[in-house]
Hints:
Layout: E1 7-11, E2 13-14, E3 17-18, H1 20-36, E4 40-46, H2 53-58, E5 63-68, H3 77-91, E6 95-99, H4 102-114, E7 119-123, E8 125-128, E9 135-141, E10 146-150, E11 157-161, E12 178-181, E13 213-217, H5 224-236, E14 240-243, H6 245-249, E15 270-274, H7 280-283, E16 291-296, H8 303-306, E17 309-312, H9 315-331
Parallel strand pairs: 1-4, 1-6, 4-5, 5-12, 6-11, 7-11, 13-14, 13-15, 15-16, 16-17
Antiparallel strand pairs: 2-3, 8-9, 9-10
Helix pairs in contact: 3-4, 5-9
The structure holds flavin-adenine dinucleotide (FAD).
Amino acid sequence: MAEYKGVMVYSEVADDKLAAITTELLGCGRKLADDLGQELSAVLVGSGVSGLAQEVIAFGADKVYVIDDPLLKDYQTDSYVAVMEKVVKQAMPQILILGQTSIGRDLAPRLAFRLETAVSLDCLELAIDPDSKLLLQTKPVYGGNALATFTFESYPQIVTVRPKAMSPLERDASRKGEVVTIEAGLDPSAIRTKVLETVIEEVEGIKLEDAEVIVSGGRGIGGAEGFEQLGELAKTLKGAVGATRPPCDNGWIPEGLQIGLTGKIVAPTLYIAVALSGSSQHMSGCSGSKNIIAINKDPEANIFKVAHFGVVGDWKKVIPAFASKVKELMIG
Ligand SMILES: Cc1cc2nc3c(=O)[nH]c(=O)nc-3n(C[C@H](O)[C@H](O)[C@H](O)COP(=O)(O)OP(=O)(O)OC[C@H]3O[C@@H](n4cnc5c(N)ncnc54)[C@H](O)[C@@H]3O)c2cc1C
């Protein structure tokens, strides 16, 4: 497999800027490329994205492949898989890293199938095995209750990485790199779907995925009023409110705030889990949190097995006391 060489990062763009996940992946890709003594390349796909190539270099890439075409304005499976297959076949990277985002989750497995290789989704750590030089991929298993390290021998080794799991490098505008333009060469009739409308989710305050502090409530909160109290606490902590599935299903809180397997994936510095049991489906969306505080009246609740700090008690008593202490400390 000597023809495969180097590390490649798929660069996502959001609001005409590099998405945060892209800078994180470039930070991690740089380290892997240095450990292999090889090049770090990046791929920029979209319409009007060429201007961002230098920014990708400033965050660590040695080379940027740019595929800029009006047909690539919106992410669309057929077109993006086709151009990524083309780039990977031309560049032949040993490792391809994408974000564990809605785009990465869609693109990575399809690309792996087309390229007849394997893929590991939702990795939290990546490293190079010093002996085999293969990529070691550490990811949560059993709904986030354990971590397992995998590797595979087919190339390219494709992985997705969870947002916030890696740190970006300091931006260095003086870094130099090469920009390679590739023609998309798309046949419009081969693109079977098109985006008719984009609806921007309205968010009051901080977006759940960007919040450093999340106050998350479960079924035990009992209703929409309880979530207002959690919202107050989140506001004091300059954070956001999240939830397990039952409060969303019951309409106590918008469904866009559901965290878990079928909801959002978050990795804040502080996750306050209130009146939720800690089901594996919920934990798979928040087990990357740096600190978890659990408040639950059941001392046997599963959440206490994963929490770093815990309070056994009724949230209706604990949260007001906690919130007033937080306010006192924040003002003090
Ligand atoms: C395919 C599939 C996908 C799923 N996806 C998701 C997902 O993305 N996200 C998700 O969250 N779930 C998901 N679920 C549902 C999941 O299995 C659980 O049912 C759900 O997470 C449980 O939510 P909960 O912890 O709020 O409720 P429960 O498990 O009912 O826990 C409520 C907790 O509140 C505590 N409590 C009650 N009253 C109080 C009080 N006054 N003070 C303190 N504590 C109190 C109880 O002790 C209990 O531990 C999914 C399920 C399936 C099958």
